[in-house]
Write a structure and sequence with these properties.
Shape: globular
Low-confidence stretches: none
Number of helices: 5
Strand order of the largest sheet: 2-1-3-4-5
Largest sheet: 5 strands, parallel
Strand content: 15-25%
Oligomer: single chain
Helix content: 40-55%
Radius of gyration: 13 Å
Length: about 120
């Protein structure tokens, strides 16, 4: 079975690298994207099974990326934000995100999602 590929779009290098390291440690393939456009470029070239995206990126918001994903390459997506609250959570769910995670993201949150999506 081919390992699952997780795309991580976040403009914060430390968080992006930490998430990618955790994903790799879980036996999955991590694809880092420095912003929304980079995420689109990666998805145009290769298959991804899940996208983790920051909400606030300088070039393209996580919501705009989510809209592009649903239109061009429908895969599950999770949004992440340091300003996560009930209103943003509702907006993320209405936009089609699996969830909105508060940053910093806890490792247990990630492993729980991966084990439910990729048993």
């Amino acid at each position: 079975m081919t390992p699952r590929t997780i795309l991580v779009a976040d403009d914060e290098p430390l968080l992006r690298e930490s998430l990618c390291d955790l994903i790799t440690d879980l036996g999955l393939i991590a694809r880092p994207a420095v912003n929304g456009q980079s995420a689109i470029d990666i998805m145009a070239r290769e298959r991804c099974d899940l996208v983790l995206s920051d909400v606030d990126m300088p070039d393209l918001s996580g919501f705009a990326l989510l809209s592009w994903i649903h239109e061009h390459h429908p895969v599950p997506a999770v949004l992440m934000s340091a300003r996560a609250d009930a209103q943003l959570t509702i907006a993320a769910q209405q936009a089609g995100a699996l969830a909105l995670w508060s940053k910093p993201v806890k490792a247990g949150t990630i492993t729980a999602l991966f084990s439910s999506l990729f048993p």
